[in-house]
Amino acid sequence: MNKDYFYVTTPIYYVNDKPHIGHAYTTILADVLARYHRLAGVPTHFLTGTDEHGQKVKQAADKAGMSPREQADRTVVRFQEAWQRLEITNDDFIRTTEDRHIKVVQGILQDLYDRGEIYKADYDGWYDVSSETFVTEKDLPEGQNPEDLPNITRIRETNYFFRMSAYQDWLIQYINDNPEFIQPEMRRNETLGFLRKPLGDLCISRPKSRMSWGIELPFDKDFVTYVWFDALVNYISAIGYRGDDEHFKRWWPVSLQLIGKDILTTHTVYWPTMLKAMNLPMPGTVFAHGWWLTGKTKMSKSLGNVVNPMDCIERFGVDAFRYFLMSEMSLGQDASFTEEAFILKYNADLANDLGNVLNRVMKLIQKDFGGKVPEALTLTEAEHDLQRAAVAAAEGMLQSVKAMRLDLGLQGLAAVVRRANQYLEQQQPWSLVKEPANRERVATVLYTVAELLRIVSGMLYPVMPGKMIDLRKALGLGVDPPQFERLHHWGGLTAGTQISEMIQLFPRAQKPSSDNEDLKMEQTKPAADKAADGLIDISEFGRVQLRTARILTAEKIDGADKLLKLQIDLGVEQRQLVAGIAQHYSPDELPGRMILVVANLKPARIRGVESCGMLLAASHEGGLVLLAPDGDIPPGCPVK
Ligand code: MSP
Q: Do domains 338-486 and 544-626 have the same CATH topology?
C-alpha cells in the first residue's frame, strides 16, 4: 500500500435507471479498498457520483415523461440510498449537474480552446447512439457494414474537436514506460492494440439542435459538451481543480480508478490525452474489472435477468452480499451471479465455518469459563501451526489488496477458519472439558480459536463491516474498528475479557426449492418478517412484471412427461420457457393462444432446458387452465 495517500474513484453512473449489480460491485470494491487503506492509517479519499448529462439520460427522461433534471433528481436518490444500505463510505459524491463541476468543465474547455487544442470542423461519419461515441470503421467488428449494426447511424454536422491525435505517440510511450498505469495486463494490451491504428481527434461537442441536455460550450452557445468530455472531468472537479488548489494537490494524481472493461478506451485513451493537454500528471492505475453475468448470460433489461442488489440485501443481508461479490470475482475476469452459487458460498464460508466456529467457542467459554476468555498456557505444535496459519492468512489478505486479488486473500481467510473448525474437531474441547484435569488444555484450545477469530474478523472488517463488528463485540472487543497494527500479530485478545451472550452471526440459508419436483426453479425466499403473516405490500407485487404473450410453438421435452417447451412472442422479443402443463394441454393445441407470463423471472434450467419466464395457470381439483387476456390485445402488454 502507498503510505502517503490513497485516492480511489468509481465511474460515475448514468441516471437513466436504478443501480444494478455492476454498479454495486465497483462501488463495494472501491469501498473495501478504501476501508483497508484507512485501517492501515493511509489518508484516503473515495469518490463516486452520477453522470447526469447526455443522450441516455435525456432518452430515459423522455420515456418517463419528465425533464432530464427531474429524471436525474429522482434517480440520483436511488443510487445514494443504495450506497447507504450497502455501507459505502465514500468521502464525496459528485453529480455532473452541480455548479462546482460545470464551472470546471467550462474552464477547461475555454482554456483548451484558447490554446488551440480545440478547433471547429465538419464531421461526416458514424455515430454509436448507445455508447455516445463517434466511431470509425476501425472500431467496428471486422467486415461489418455499419448500416447493418443496431444503434449506429450516419451523422453530418459541424462540431468542435479536441486534438487527441497529437498525443498518440506520447500515450503509447507512456503506457509502455508505466506498466502499472493500465491494469490488468490484458487491458493494457487491448489499449495498445487500439493505439496501433491512427488515433483521430475527439469530437467534444453536440449541436443543441440535436441534443440540448449538456454543459454549454463557453465559446459557442449553440453547442453542449460531449457527455464523456464532461463526465471524465468529475475525477478532478470533485477534488477542487481550478478552485481549491490545496485540496487538489492533496489528492491528485489519483491512486486508483476502477472501471468496467467496457469503458476502457474512454479511460485509457481519451482521459490521459485530456490530462496531458491540461498539463496534469497521469492517474496511478486505471483498473478494468470484468462483468457480472447471470449464470453464463450477459445481464440485460430485455432478458429480465439483471440482478438488483437491493433484492439480494433483503434476502441475505448487506455483509453476505459484499462478501460474495468480493470473493467470487477474480479481478479482471468475468464472474457469474446465481442464487445457487450465492447460497453455496454463504453456507460454506459463513454459516458452516465462520459462524459455526464462533458458536462453538462462545458456547464453551460461556458454559465452562464463566463467559471470560480463558488463558492459553502450554502450547503444542497444533496451536503453533494454527497461529502461523492465521498470521499468514492475514498477511496474505493485505498482499491481495496490493495485488488487486481480493478473491485470493478472502480464500486464504476462509481456509484458515475452516482449519480452525478442523482443529476443534481434532481437539474435541467439548469432550475434554468433562475431565477436570483437562481444563488447562481446553483453555488453550479455546483461547487459540478465539484469538484466530479476532485476527480474521479484523481482516474481514473492510468487507463485512457490520457482521465483523458484531463478531468482535461478541468476543468482548468493543464496537470500534479493529486496530490495524494488532491485526497481524498473535496475542491481541486479553485473557479474562468478558464475552457477550450467544449470537447467531450467519444463520444457514435454504437452498432454492420447489414443491413441484420437475420445476427446480431458482426461488426467492420472502423476507422473514413479511412471511409471518403471508402478506406482501404493493411494492413487492410491483416488482413482478406480468405481460401478455402469444405462444408460437410448443413441444414435449424428452424424459419429462409433465413439461412442455414453449417459444413465445413477448411483443419486443421472443422467449423460450418451460411450463409444467403437459398433462393438461397437448402441444398442437397451444400455438396461437394468448397467455399471461411473469416476464422478469431469473432464467433457470429445467431438465437442462433454458426457461426465461413463467406462464400463469389456475389449478382446481387436479386440473389446470391457462390464464388469458379477456379481449383482443397484442403480446407484450403490461398486466397491472
Ligand atoms: N457514465 C458512464 C461512466 C462515466 S465515468 C467518467 C457509464 N455509466 S454506466 O452506469 O453505464 O456504467 C457504469 C459502470 O458499470 C461501468 O464501469 C460498467 O462497466 C459497469 N457495469 C455495467 N454492467 C455491468 C455488469 N453486469 N457487471 C459489472 N460491471 C458492469 O458507463
A: no
Ligand 1, atom nearest to 11 Cα: 5
Beta strands 285-289; 182-183: pairing state: parallel
Q: In whole angstroms, what separates CA 618 from the centre of its chain?
A: 38
- The alpha carbon of 213 and the centre of ligand 1 are apart by a number of angstroms equal to 20
Average pLDDT over residues 262-279: 97
Q: How confident is the model at residue 535, as a pLDDT?
A: 67
Q: Residue 501: name the closest of 465, 470, 480 by CA.
A: 470
Q: How confident is the model at residue 172 (pLDDT cuts 50, 70, 90)?
A: very high
Interval between CA 232 and ligand 1 midpoint (Å) = 13
Nearest CA to ligand 1 atom 18: 260
Tell me the domain boundaries of the chain.
Answer: 338-486, 544-626
Q: What is the dihedral of CA 565, 567, 570, 571, to 10 degrees?
A: -170
Enter the pTM of the model.
Answer: 0.79
Atom 10 of ligand 1, residue of closest alpha carbon: 13
Q: Are 125 and 136 in contact (CB under 8 A)?
A: yes
Instruction: State in Å: Cα 23 to ligand 1 middle.
Output: 6
Highest mean pLDDT among 148-152, 245-249, 332-336, 481-485: 245-249
- 338-486 CATH, one of 2.40.30.10, 1.10.155.10, 1.10.730.10, 1.10.10.10: 1.10.730.10
Residue (of 543, 373, 352, 390) closest to 446 by Cα position: 373
pLDDT band at 528 (very low <50, low <70, confident <90, very high): very low
The three grid cell numbers given for residue 119, joined into one nine-digit string: 478547433
Give how far Cα 19 sits from Cα of 22, 24, 309, 324, 542, Å: 8, 7, 8, 18, 17
Q: Which amino acid does the sequence have at 475?
A: L
Residue closest via CA to ligand 1's atom 9 equals 13
Nearest-CA residue for ligand 1 atom 12 is 13
CA-based nearest residue to 442, from 362, 365, 502: 365
CATH number of the structural domain 544-626: 2.40.50.140
Lowest-pLDDT range, 141-155, 214-228, 529-543? Answer: 529-543
d(CA 305, CA 294): 7
- The overall average pLDDT reported for the chain is 90
Spacing, Cα 287 to ligand 1 middle (Å): 13
Q: Looking at 26-30, 46-50, 411-415, 487-491, which range is the least confident one?
A: 487-491
Q: What is the pLDDT of residue 267?
A: 98
Residues with CB under 6 A from ligand 1: 11-14, 22-23, 25-26, 51, 231-232, 234, 259-260, 262-263, 291-292, 299
Grid coordinates standing for 494? 486479553
How far, in Å, is the centroid of ligand 1 from the Cα of 10?
A: 9
* Other Cβ atoms closer than 10 A to 340: 13
Measured in Å, residue 67 CA sits from the centre of ligand 1 at 23
- Residue 68: cis peptide before it, omega within 30 degrees of 0: no
Question: Bridge-partner residues for 611, per DSSP?
Answer: 604
